[in-house]
Amino acid sequence: MIRISKNITYKESRFYQYIKRHQKYAPLLFFIGGFTWDSLTLGRIDRVYDIVILCTYITLLTASIYIYNLVDGEKWKNTFFRKNEAYLPLAIQFFLGGLTSAYVIYFSRSVSLSKTASFFLILLFLLFANEFFKKRVSNKYLQFGAYFFVNFTFLSFFIPVILKKMNTEIFIISGLISLVSTFLLIILVYKNSYSTRVAMVKWKMFGLIFSIYILINTFYYFRLIPPVPLALDKGVVAHNIQIQNGNYKVSYEIDNWYIFWRDHKIDFNRTINKPVYVFTSIFAPTDLKKKIYHQWKWYNKTLDSWQNLDKIGFEITGGRDNGYRGYSYKNNVKDGMWKVEVVTEEDLVLGVVDFNIKTGKSSRKTNLKVREF
Predict the structure, then answer these.
(1) Mean pLDDT lowest among 101-115, 169-183, 241-255, 261-275
(2) What InterPro entries does this protein map onto (predicted)?
(3) What angle, rounded to 10 degrees, do the helices at 202-221 and 168-192 form?
(4) What CATH code is carried by the domain that includes residue 330?
């Protein structure tokens, strides 16, 4: 009688009834809740708090998926998780939201929006995927596919942070660890859950996960994924740069107030015989060292293509909140469209600083600003 009474009390609780009435939208709301919470609390990728939070999320996500798929078995009858199984899909959505929002926070520090667009598209897919699948989070293929993606992404920047080193080999190792760990979770669930064996075909699931693995590596090969945990924090085309007392004094033109997505004016009014400077600050985790290059490119209208010109490199050391500062400059420049790609040794693009040069004997500079970095 006591067991039945507890079950009735649970079934009649206001929160449970509310979840049942709004179960169509509740997972999405919990997903957004995780996203919002991380946006307010996370900051640096190498901070102890951030590392603990992300490790907790990926651990609890793994546990939630495992329990959710096994809780309908006889062994779980009358357990705490069976009585509260209605909340497990919400937990999965919350931790997925928390992890993906963390990735957006770190990637959004980059100046190049184009290089983070692919990730935002994946984020939007994860955010709205449950609205496009009838079974929503109970769909095994969606569930484990999303898990593999966030697991791979987590390890791709967590391992470099821990090892203080990042390169292609580290990325490959991260992918293999996430692939093996996801396969082990699937095997464990499949072995112990009769409902899972009925709902999915194991080899079809393995094929899906491996396809996502190949897709992510293909994106990496074609340099479509930002080289986390590095991020381009600032990128400015400038008229002059001076270093005083360890600070960089950068003189550059600012654009109209409604052009909020970049700091500098895209039309660079150059005075004849004066150099063009490009200043960048690059965020990197503490003690991580990496060679970075400024690849100068000029658009040749005759050939209708970008031409590679100077490639200037410098070593960066991580740890500074506002990024490791550096700059390059060029004297012999032509009028027209220019861009400076900030790249790693592996030619992975951190960001792009683009501008149009217009040269005059005494070019008038409007809205000139001097700022210390």
Answers:
(1) 101-115
(2) DUF2914
(3) 170
(4) 2.60.40.10
What is the C-alpha to C-alpha distance for residues 104 and 119, in angstroms, rounded to an integer? 8
Residue 178: pLDDT above 50? yes
Round to whole Å and give the CA distance between 248 and 216: 38
- Do 78 and 3 form a contact (C-beta atoms < 8 A)? yes
Contacts of 203 (CB under 8 A, 6+ apart): none
| Domain identity same for 173 and 303 | no
* Cα–Cα distance measured from residue 292 to residue 242, given in angstroms and rounded to the nearest whole number: 21
Q: Is the pTM of this model over 0.85?
A: no
Cα–Cα distance, 40 to 33 (Å, whole number): 11
Do the domain assignments include residue 115?
yes
Q: Which DSSP letter does residue 76 get? A: G
User: What residues make up the domain containing 47?
Assistant: 2-221
One-letter amino acid for residue 117 of the chain: A
Distance between CA 115 and CA 100 in Å, rounded?
A: 17
Other beta carbons within 10 Å of 234: 21
The pLDDT value given to residue 260: 73
238-259 tens-digit pLDDT: 999 999 988 999 999 998 877 7
Is the predicted pLDDT of residue 126 greater than 80, yes or no? no
- Measured CA to CA, the distance from residue 277 to residue 73 in angstroms comes to 66
Q: Is the pLDDT of residue 225 over 90?
A: no
90 CB contacts (<8 Å, ≥6 apart)? Answer: 19, 26, 27, 30
Alpha-carbon distance of 328 to 280, in angstroms, equals: 9
In this structure, are strands 267-271 and 349-360 parallel, antiparallel, or unpaired?
parallel
In angstroms, rounded to a whole number, what is the distance separating the alpha carbons of residues 227 and 347?
A: 10
> Considering 169, 195, 221, which residue would you say is the last residue of a domain?
221
pLDDT tens digit sequence for 39-66? 677 767 788 888 898 999 999 999 999 9
Nearest C-alpha neighbor of 292 from the set 343, 237, 328: 343
| Shared-domain flag, residues 237 and 217 | no
The residue length of the chain stands at: 373
Q: Which residues pair with 231 in a beta bridge?
A: 283
Q: Could you tell me the pLDDT band of residue 113, with boundaries at 50, 70 and 90?
A: low
